[in-house]
Design a protein that fits this description.
The protein starts with a helix and ends with a helix. With about 240 residues, the chain is mainly alpha-helical.
């Protein structure tokens, strides 16, 4: 009802009830103002949520790409690496996934979760391999630098039959005395030699390539889902 109509009503009948005309008109205006404020707040809230979802999606794409490339780097490296950086990349991916889950919608977080499982799994496997294979990488590095002891041990470790008897061979004592391996890594290598089933064989590269291609497909699927979601949101 228009304000003029309210005023007319007040003049004709509301005054009989003892309600001041200014009060009635003021209440009506206050209600209209409140409704307008609620609509504005709702619009601002939707804009804020849309913005945070976009930011979460972009961050997730950047972090999952970084984590996948970190896994690729680990999959081909035989160097003694500082794995703290790789672990930080893995934690950043977990945080990005958590934000996508919180912000939603579920249709996006479900697609993101599929990519997360593939990439986080690949990065986790290669992180574990680099930890377990660190003694071999240290021996390889020492051999490349000219250590004869390391070179002899490396060649023996390359053959499963050579590993079986290394602990009883004088070469083991030479390795222990050389200082090439810190005590912790020497004990780790000893454990692998005593329990052959724990030997840290590297994942076949063709297997990783399949994982890499699958991960790229999952990332593309998430990007497509993000576009579809915001296109639909804009249509409304």
């Amino acid at each position: 009802m228009e304000i003029e109509a309210v005023a007319a009503l007040v003049a004709s009948g509301a005054a009989v009830l003892g309600v001041p005309a200014a009060l009635v008109v003021g209440m009506r205006q206050a209600r209209a103002a409140r409704q307008a404020a609620e609509l504005a707040a709702g619009s601002a809230r939707e804009q804020w949520r849309s913005s945070t979802r976009r930011e979460a999606a972009v961050t997730f794409v950047l972090e999952i790409d970084r984590a996948l490339e970190e896994a690729r780097k680990l999959s081909v490296s035989y160097d003694v690496l500082d794995l703290d950086e790789s672990k930080q990349v893995q934690r950043a991916l977990w945080r990005a996934m958590a934000v996508v889950r919180i912000e939603g919608p579920k249709s996006l977080s479900d697609v993101a979760a599929d990519g997360y499982k593939v990439v986080n799994g690949a990065l986790g496997r290669h992180l574990v391999h680099h930890v377990q294979a660190r003694p071999q990488f240290l021996i390889r590095a020492a051999a490349n630098e000219g250590s004869e002891v390391a070179d002899k041990v490396r060649k023996r470790l390359a053959l499963p039959t050579g590993r079986d008897s290394l602990l009883q061979h004088p070469m083991w004592a030479e390795l222990a005395a050389s200082g090439i391996l810190p005590t912790r890594e020497l004990r780790r290598l000893e454990g692998h030699l005593r329990h052959s089933g724990t030997w840290p064989d590297r994942e076949d590269h063709s297997t990783f390539l399949k994982t890499y291609e699958r991960a790229r497909g999952e990332i593309d699927a998430f990007i497509d889902a993000v576009y579809a979601h915001f296109d639909q949101e804009s249509a409304h």
